[in-house]
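## retry 2 of 3
previous attempt timed out at serialization; input unchanged, resubmitting
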Amino acid sequence: MGMDLHTYKYLIFSALEIGNIITLLVKSVLFGFVLAVIPIYKTLKYPDARHSTSKIFLILFLLEILFILIPKAFNAL
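## retry succeeded, writing output
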């Protein structure tokens, strides 16, 4: 890009704001909490469905991957 490392670091760190970092952390914690509570709730409510808990975790993991990749795909367009 024709710039030195010092200029690049300055541009990156000047673009970061504390509000964005706090928002990112809060959203991550809430999303992780919801992803963890759903299978635990289902397992406690339906004890005979414990064998399907691993399936729920797998589906939630795949959804999380999709939610990460979808915005990147739209940004690439």
